[in-house]
Write the structure tokens for this entry.
Amino acid sequence: MNSNNFWKLLGALGLAFALPWLLLVVLPYLDQSGAAPVAYGEGEEIEGGLTAYPDRTLQRHGASDYGREIYAAEGCAYCHTQVVRPTYAGADMWRTGWGGREEDGLARETQPGDYANEGVALLGYQRIGQDLSNVGHRITTREEMHRHLYDPKSFDTDSGMPAYKHLYRPSAMGDGLVPTPKAEALVDYLLSLKKDQPLPKSVLSGN
Ligand code: HEC
């Protein structure tokens, strides 16, 4: 290798590491490092009539907390994220439904408070499937959600999603499958994924 190529290679390698580092570490750090608790007036008016992050414990229903543990244990986060990235870092807001209820003008990027009360935020490792931050708005019935888990290929014959058949048992009548309590809890959790609550302007980053 002549020395010219060597420097080209080194330069290309440097760029290949520096660019993602800049976009994924430095920019988000600069964006968020100044974040401080925001005091907002009790009556601060925002669209939708809410005044702050709603108390998620009130929204939780069924066994969605247990369902979140199943989501973690089954490795869903290896293929699904729960981060609607800011547009400078990705095209998530251009994907239909990822940011939430577009028809109501509520679609938005994920904000740090969306993980309030979650213990461990299941951000995800990579995106083989869709971002699931707002999947509870896209798939709204238990039946459809179950079908996505035990037979993903029934929606998309090329689906790269494994079938989670071990979360289902044959019915006693032999005429189909019955969800285990784990599957029911997981579906509770998935249906509860709606990270598009309206926020006061003062909380939205960049404001
Ligand atoms: C090996 C990667 C992989 C794993 C692991 C995986 N999925 Fe998926 N998932 C996908 C792909 C690819 C799609 C898109 C194709 C499809 O709809 O089947 C998808 C689609 C979905 C959808 C439909 C999303 C939408 O917007 O319509 C849901 C819901 C879902 N997955 C839930 C889960 C859950 C819950 C788990 C864990 C129990 C899981 N996935 C594990 C790859 C994966």
About this structure: Residues 71, 74-76, 78-80, 128-130, 135, 138-139, 148, 152, 155-156, 159-162, 164, 186, 190 surround heme C (CB under 6 Å). The helical segments are 3-32, 56-59, 64-73, 135-138, 142-150, 181-191. The CA atoms of residues 1 and 7 lie 10 Å apart. The longest strand covers residues 168-170.
